[in-house]
Specification:
Elements: H1 4-24, E1 63-71, E2 83-90, E3 108-116, E4 123-129, E5 132-135, E6 138-149, E7 166-177, E8 182-192, H2 195-198, E9 215-225
Antiparallel strand pairs: 1-2, 1-9, 2-3, 3-4, 4-6, 5-6, 6-7, 7-8, 8-9
Length: 226
């Protein structure tokens, strides 16, 4: 038994040294730990483009637009191709808490008008507009609403017969974002009382002809978001 005492002391020393080294060993590096799985990124529905960055999306801001327009073929009879100065104001998209691409399907309110510079038909309108990104550098914007005008209800030598004092106002814009604030758009607008397509009878568009000639207007807009 006496011979085994020094040997037991040696093993006790080894064990004490082992546990002492383990107590001061630094924790494992983060590289040694298993990494957390990556967060899922919301993907757009099939067939739709990815959500563009903020610099290419003016739809979430207030916006003013302005630029020239021209009454296209079918407008104001012999006085087609007369010029307007147009301006409009748009609100941000309606906020219903949606995220990702579905938020782009929420409408914006658009209020605007077009002043004819040659004494022909001028008008003001209130629309619902959808600003839809196609790519990070292109968006399309359909709109639909109503308009009032100072034109003629019946056909004359110089003016189209618009039929009703209140008209449908619809069209589409094609835009290119320049930066976070500025964009450029080409626009097409159509104003009509809806007699042909919807059989609307406002009381003053009853004649069979010359009471739903409408206006077709094309233009260019500069937009500033803030």
């Amino acid at each position: 038994m006496r011979r085994r005492e020094p040997q037991a002391r040696v093993w006790a020393g080894y064990l004490a040294a082992f546990f002492a080294c383990g107590a001061v060993t630094p924790p494992a590096n983060s590289a040694d730990m298993p990494s957390a799985p990556p967060l899922a990124v919301e993907q757009p529905p099939a067939g739709l483009p990815a959500v563009p960055n903020a610099t290419s999306n003016p739809g979430d801001s207030f916006e003013v637009r302005f630029g020239p327009s021209i009454h296209a073929e079918g407008s104001d009879k012999a006085h087609a191709y007369v010029f307007d100065l147009a301006a409009s104001f748009l609100t941000p998209r309606l906020d219903l808490g949606l995220s990702g691409y579905w938020a782009y399907l929420l409408p914006r309110l658009q209020v605007g008008g077009s002043l004819n510079l040659e004494g022909r038909t001028s008008y003001a309108y209130l629309d619902s507009a959808l600003t839809l990104p196609v790519t990070s550098w292109l968006f399309v914007e359909p709109f639909f609403g109503g308009a009032v005008h100072n034109g003629s209800l019946v056909s004359t030598w110089t003016l189209n017969g618009l039929g009703c004092p209140l008209l449908f106002h619809l069209g589409v814009g094609l835009g290119v974002p320049i930066n976070q604030h500025w964009s450029v758009l080409g626009t097409f607008e159509h104003l009509s009382n809806g007699k042909t397509a919807l059989n609307v009878d406002c009381g003053t568009n009853a004649p069979a002809s010359g009471s739903n000639q409408g206006l077709n207007v094309v233009g260019v807009r500069a937009g500033y978001s803030f």
